[in-house]
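Hi team, as promised in this morning's meeting, here are the two structures we talked about. I've kept the exact order from the run log so nobody has to guess. The first one is mostly here for context; it's the second one we should focus on when we meet again. Sequence first, then the predicted structure tokens.
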Amino acid sequence: MNAFLFGFAAVAVLVAGLLSYAASSLPDGLDATTRHGCVMVEVGTAQEFHGDCLARHAEEHALANSPLADYTIGGDDRLTGIAGILGVAAAFAALFAVVRIIRAAGSDSERAEHNPDLPTESEST
């Protein structure tokens, strides 16, 4: 099982690190739908939507200026692959933490089943 997980992790890192450069920068279906009926206008360094569309009422996300926003690092499109690898690493770290918590809870209940002399949580408080 560990070999499978390490293989899966390696493939995920390769896909995130290499194929992310081939991804389209054009808006996906949802973005394209919300922009339908508007024209994007450059205003200084920002972009605004003019016309009648849902995107005109959209607000900037609270994490829009975070280091890994828009699948880049600090807004540098050349670092898309590294941002993808960091995202995969963060996802695997979260998964690993959840699995450890679940295993620890399962181990505690197994110990209590195999050793009925141990006090339960309600008896020890």
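And here is the second protein, the one for discussion:
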Amino acid sequence: MARRSESGPSPVLTQRLDAADFLSSLSASGTAAAQVPLDGDDTDVTAPGMDAFYTDGDALPVGTAPAAAKRASFSRGGTVSWAEAHYADADELRTDCTNFASKSLHRGGGAHMEYGSVIDIRRSPYEWWRKSKSDMTYSWSAANNFANFMGNEDSVTWVRNLSSVSAGDIMLLEYAGDGDSNLDHAAVIYGAGSTTSSIKVYQHSSHYRNTNLAAIIKRRPGVTVYIAHITPHWY
């Protein structure tokens, strides 16, 4: 079901809701839509230039790749430390995986939020911010939008082989058989090595909050894996 704004010359789609959203109590004011937590179910166009790390049935590449640029004010170790301290916390959103990854990058890694120059637009592919658990950009809380923002900001190296995976990278998954090509999940990598079982992640929105890539591939036949090595360039 869609919520539309009647302001302006024609109705404008502002947020897509499903029946579960209506179980919460919403005010009758024009800000009611903002009270519905955002999640990974409502997604936009995937970031351009994404390279899959693994597609079901493909061999995992093991070569080496040039090291990505580093930025002194961003800490991948801090990203991992925050995720380690909070992966067992209760979910804030119905689908909390990307919110958890974004908080790890910001609160642990020190990645700055990005705001609009004139007005903050939650659907903007050029903004990445959180004001509260009911007011944040889609890029903060939905996997596809997250990848779109990072790609638009030219802040991602898409990892192509096992030897280039680093702790603090973000794993993004697209599940097979769900009827679309949108990204469905995000997780924080905290372990890296030469096998899929050594690539370990912390994540939310799952009973498997501390798991590894081998287990993910086994549980999710047909999954496509992307690994984003993020170097913030927007500040």
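Starting points for discussion:
Confidence is low (pLDDT under 50) at residues 1-41, 65-72.
Helices lie at 76-86, 97-108, 138-141, 143-152, 213-219.
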